[in-house]
From TrEMBL:
Keyword Aminoacyl-tRNA synthetase: no
Keywords: Oxidoreductase
Limits of the Nitroreductase domain: 15-191
Family affiliation: Belongs to the nitroreductase family.
Domain of life the protein comes from: Bacteria
Name of the protein described by the UniProt record: Nitroreductase family protein
UniProt keyword annotation of Protein biosynthesis present: no
Annotated organism of origin: Paenibacillus baimaensis
Length: 214
């Protein structure tokens, strides 16, 4: 019981201490292995039908981050942080259904018959979905994994800041991103050189309604 209580306390500490940090120790590096571990843990996030329609580009080479800097409106955290993670939405993520559900069969989570039905139903439905509706679904899933990246990073002692302020068109052109992917956000990660400033939240009564909206 004590272990469970401690885990809960640690979780709330992560929630309360996470800040959007914009100034980083530029000499501090996070290894590629640990960045991989952070992303691996973050991808435990939920997604529609477990299709995991996200891809990541990790920018940890200083010269490449310099290339990214003007695309991201010259936000200094791009070049000062240890890395910048670009979260991309995969508009053809449903094509991964066979691989994902085959792995679930191998793990003993479902029968092959159930897998076949799911794959056929999901791919058939999503392949015919209106583009805007499909994109919205992918953006929701990418928002979930992005928040998870930031929480996992904080739990490991690192700081982050999400950035929507970048030129998606120039990003696509500069890094040769195909039409299959939609840039969702950039996330800088590293060790803070300056703490993120405290912020306030609206009273929960201002944003919560019961059984309908006023």
């Amino acid at each position: 019981m004590e272990t469970n209580v401690q885990q809960v306390q640690d979780f709330y500490q992560v929630l309360k201490e996470r800040r959007s940090v914009r100034h980083y120790d530029s000499t501090f590096k996070i290894s590629e292995q640990e960045l991989t571990d952070i992303l691996t843990e973050a991808t435990l996030a939920p997604s529609g039908a477990n299709l995991q329609p996200w891809k990541f580009i990790v920018f940890n080479d200083q010269a490449v981050k310099e290339k990214l800097l003007p695309i991201a409106n010259n936000q200094i955290q791009v070049v000062e942080s240890s890395a910048v993670i670009a979260v991309l939405g995969d508009l053809e993520g449903y094509k991964q259904a066979e691989k994902i559900y085959a792995s679930a069969v191998e793990a003993g989570y479902m029968s092959n018959e159930i897998k076949e039905n799911l794959v056929n139903n999901i791919t058939g439905f999503l392949s015919k979905m209106a583009p805007d509706r499909l994109k919205n679904s992918v953006l929701i899933d990418c928002g979930l994994v992005s928040m998870q990246i930031m929480l996992v990073a904080k739990a490991r002692g690192y700081d982050t800041v999400p950035m929507a302020g970048f030129d998606a068109g120039k990003f696509i052109e500069a890094f040769n991103i195909s039409d299959r992917y939609v840039p969702v956000m950039l996330i800088a990660i590293g060790k803070a050189a300056q703490a993120g400033h405290p912020t306030v939240r609206l009273p929960i009564e201002d944003v919560t309604f019961w059984n309908g909206i006023a």
